[in-house]
Known about the structure:
Elements: H1 2-37, H2 40-55, H3 59-79, H4 86-116, H5 128-160
Helix pairs in contact: 1-3, 1-5, 3-4, 4-5
Amino acid sequence: MQSVLIVAMLWISALCCALMAGLYFAFSTFIMRALGRIDRSAAIAAMNAINVDIQRSLVMPIFLGSTLIAAVLVVVALLDLAAPYAVPVLMGSAIYVAGMFVVTMARNVPLNNALAAIEPRDGATNPLWPRYLTEWTRWNHVRTLASLTGCALDIRAISLL
């Protein structure tokens, strides 16, 4: 029964990591570039609208739930370090929590909050937008890679069960 529960948690984690990686990948590869090419005021208004809507969407339960599952999987792996699946679970879950959740809370959210404080019509002269594009996207690349790594290591762990 315990093995079935671990497999279920790993599959849920892998799928959630994949969903988050896809979301972050979209922002890293084309959404931020597109916003960088349009009028600053319009881009700031669009990004602020995205940030409001994403908090009210299905992304939030996946974001928080996947973090909780990863944290539980870290504990599971630590309690059974001799198991063949333990190292990939421990690595993948730790990378996911640190590279996705912690980076989001420590880097991307503060940038989003700073952007939300700007009146979009003042964006044409505000120096935050160019910095926001660069820094937010850089940290978003980290979130993409951490989510993808978490997914891959979850799948690897499943294959070892």
